[in-house]
Write a structure and sequence with these properties.
Layout: H1 2-17, E1 20-24, E2 30-32, E3 41-47, E4 58-65, E5 68-71, E6 78-79, E7 87-90, E8 96-103, E9 108-118, E10 121-133, H2 135-173, H3 179-193, H4 196-208, H5 214-227, H6 230-236, H7 243-256, H8 260-286, H9 293-304, H10 306-320, H11 323-335, H12 341-354, H13 357-362, H14 368-391, H15 398-406, H16 410-429, H17 433-443, H18 467-498, H19 503-528, H20 534-564, H21 577-602, H22 605-634, H23 640-667
Parallel strand pairs: 2-10
Antiparallel strand pairs: 1-3, 3-8, 4-7, 4-9, 5-8, 6-7, 9-10
Helix pairs in contact: 2-3, 2-8, 2-11, 3-5, 4-5, 4-14, 5-14, 5-16, 5-17, 6-11, 6-16, 7-8, 8-11, 9-10, 9-12, 10-12, 11-12, 11-16, 12-14, 12-16, 14-16, 14-17, 15-16, 18-19, 18-20, 18-21, 19-20, 20-23, 21-22, 21-23, 22-23
């Protein structure tokens, strides 16, 4: 009997609860922190049976979670009823009850309940989800998070490059024509220095200086795209809680470490901590946005508009110049539920296209082979993104299903999608490397260089962050400058002896040498402002002095040209000891120029020693020429031609002194020893 009574009471209560229904009518679900919601919270109470409005029903509005304050709404009977939290509002003739709400100062989700009841208790309830946001706070924190992330990437990358820079250069230089080894090397180098941009810029520089062929470079770039995915995989391990300990540990090593290698490893650890901190900042500030319907709808567009997502990913990557940063941002959006896996994949494809811009910028002003290399990088990622976009168009397609199979974590799925794209794309393109190289040559056709063409000095400012490679670049371009200065001096010598070559051509070349000196000195001065090892700090002054020596050699070429203006005819056809000595000096300076260029370009120490021997010969000839001219003066046989020849020999001897300065620096190891030989 008692059981039957209990069952009847329960059914009666259920029937009463089902009599009314509370329907939220509020369309505005978000607002600014510290401000009133632009529209009042609105609910309508209706009968469940026929959906007709019910006036005179008490509705209890309560803030269940989040920071917000309820305020009465004019035109509605609103009371504070004892024993209840929040306010009680009586529905009007349309069954509607309204309540104003002011958000607190803290961003986040706010949950408000509206419970309709009578004297017997609760009849029905509804929940209203809101979000309190601060647009400026979000923008500043996202930008700040990206900045901290980039700072971490730069700190970690520069530390790794300082530790492994020399090995990295040697490894890349020794790449064989085996494209598989090129891919492996590109992946390992990029994974080591944590930046594919640096690897591609280095490769463009090597191709520009003929140290690597286009096909070899394409293989390295394929590998670099794989190596750059390591950053995303590190982020996906969810070790953000260790950001501050890593920063502290890295900072400690940087200050306490006794040798430079330990200090650089400290920078690597600190950079990793900063990278994770930037990710944490971006993640925390985006978390409240999940409850904002407009924000969710905005990001949902990426899933339905793949082209828009790819373009957005490309644009942001070009803007911040780091695909790792934009991949990290995409992982954050996916991890907070603001975008779907499909939308994240489209963004990743765009980010892979955007990262090729760095190589394109580095190739500006380079030769055609270097520009072809940059084009190969762009085509590789662009074509790959095109067919992967088609594979990802179906939400339940095989590619997205494969990505979901790899992990249940949204962040890990994005990282894995990034890795899968680059690995699979590499496998597809590996047998097509020769075809890709040919396509690049069709787009940017080769051009035969004209005889006597002025060499272009190529200085990649992107490499200033990698001092070992920047110094290598200076040495490489100094070799070009040495060859050009030597040609200028030999033209002036031939002009003096025979009258061949136009003075305007010699002056043009001397002006070009001055420009080379200016550009290379400016590059070296910017390099001085970076973080240099002790050896690098001692190497740069020597390079600058050698550049100045080369510029002085071109000045003596002009002096020789001016000496010619005092004589006429072919000097070698005249008899006498001075023309014979001039001929000997000409042969000696030709040999000296050839040996110096070989020493500078190939670090040929045997050639450097021969330059020192030739310099001694020039000194002897100069002394002999002075004696012969003195004898001519004594016998009253001296003339303007003899004086001009004496000046010519003197200028050649001084140019030889500068050649000697250059090779002595090479013999001394290419480092500054704290003294300068006066010439």
């Amino acid at each position: 009997m008692r059981l039957v009574t209990t069952f009847l009471l329960l059914m009666t209560a259920i029937g009463a609860a089902a009599e009314y229904r509370v329907q939220p009518l509020s369309e505005k679900t978000y607002g600014n922190t510290g401000m009133l919601l632009s529209e009042p919270l609105t609910v309508r109470v209706t009968r469940s049976s026929d959906d007709t409005p019910v006036p005179g029903v008490s509705v209890n509005f309560t803030v269940q979670s989040g920071e917000a304050e309820l305020l009465p709404c004019s035109g509605y009977v609103t009371v504070l009823r004892e024993g209840l939290s929040g306010f009680v509002v009586v529905t009007d003739s349309a069954g509607v009850a309204m309540m104003n709400l002011r958000f607190g100062e803290k961003m986040g989700e706010v949950l408000v309940t509206a419970v309709a009841g009578d004297s017997d208790g609760e009849l029905s309830r509804a929940s209203i989800q809101l979000v309190s946001i601060n647009i400026l706070f979000i923008v500043f924190n996202v930008l700040g998070g990206v900045a901290v992330f980039l700072l971490g990437m730069q700190t970690m990358s520069s530390g790794l490059q300082q530790v492994a820079g020399n090995r990295m250069k040697l490894i890349l230089q020794r790449i064989t024509s085996n494209r598989i080894m090129g891919v492996i090397t590109g992946a390992l180098v990029t994974a080591t220095i944590q930046t594919s941009s640096a690897t591609t810029v280095i490769v463009v520089g090597f191709v520009n200086s003929s140290l690597m062929t286009l096909q070899q470079a394409v293989g390295v770039i394929l590998g670099a795209n794989i190596g750059t995915t390591i950053t995303g995989q590190l982020i996906a391990f969810r070790i953000a809680d260790y950001a501050f300990p890593l920063i502290t540990l890295g900072l400690g090593f940087s200050f306490i470490g006794k040798n430079r290698t330990r200090k650089q490893w400290g920078r690597v650890v600190m950079g990793l901590g900063l990278l994770l901190l930037g990710m944490t900042v971006m993640s925390e500030v985006m978390r409240p946005l999940r409850a904002s319907a407009p924000v969710r709808n905005f990001f949902a567009e990426f899933s339905t508009n793949p082209l828009l997502a790819v373009l957005a990913g490309t644009a942001v990557t070009v803007l911040v110049q780091s695909s790792s940063a934009t991949i990290g941002l995409t992982m954050t959006l996916a991890g907070t539920g603001l975008i779907s896996l499909q939308g994240a994949v489209f963004l990743v494809l765009g980010e892979n296209i955007g990262t090729t811009i760095t190589a394109q910028v580095a190739a500006i002003g380079s030769n055609r082979a270097a520009r072809q290399t940059a084009m190969a990088h762009t085509l590789f990622n662009l074509i790959g993104a095109a067919y992967f976009m088609l594979l990802a168009l179906k939400e339940e397609g095989p590619f997205l299903e494969l990505v979901r199979f790899t992990s249940s974590s949204p962040m890990r799925q994005v990282a894995n999608a990034h890795s899968l794209f680059n690995v699979l794309n590499c496998i597809v393109f590996l047998p097509l490397v020769p075809a890709l190289a040919r396509l690049c040559k069709i787009i940017i056709p080769d051009e035969k260089s004209e005889e006597g063409e002025t060499p272009e000095i190529v200085l990649d400012f992107n490499l200033l962050k990698t001092p070992v490679l920047a110094i290598y670049t200076l040495n490489r371009e100094m070799g070009k400058m040495a060859e050009y200065c030597g040609e200028c001096l030999l033209m002036a010598s031939e002009h003096f002896l025979t009258g061949r070559h136009e003075p305007s051509e010699i002056l043009r070349r001397e002006d070009r040498v001055d420009m080379m000196q200016r550009d290379m000195t400016n590059y070296a001065s910017k390099l001085f402002q970076g973080h240099l090892s002790r050896r690098q700090s001692l190497t740069l002054p020597v390079i600058i002095h050698s550049i100045n020596d080369l510029e002085r050699i071109s000045d003596y070429a002009v002096n020789i040209m001016e000496a010619r203006s005092r004589v006429t005819g072919d000097i070698l056809s005249d008899g006498g000891p001075l023309p014979a000595l001039a001929s000997t000096v000409s042969r000696t300076i030709i040999e000296m120029t050839r040996e110096t260029v070989s020493a500078v370009k190939s670090k040929d120490m045997a050639a450097a020693q021969r330059v020192l021997m030739l310099e001694g010969r020039l000194d002897q000839i100069n002394e002999e020429a002075r004696e012969k001219y003195g004898e001519a003066l004594a016998s009253k046989m001296a003339n303007m031609t003899g004086l001009a020849i004496l000046d010519y020999i003197e200028y050649c001897e001084r140019a030889g002194d500068h050649f000697t300065n250059i090779v002595q620096s090479l013999i001394g190891g290419g480092v500054w020893h704290g003294r300068e030989e006066q010439r």
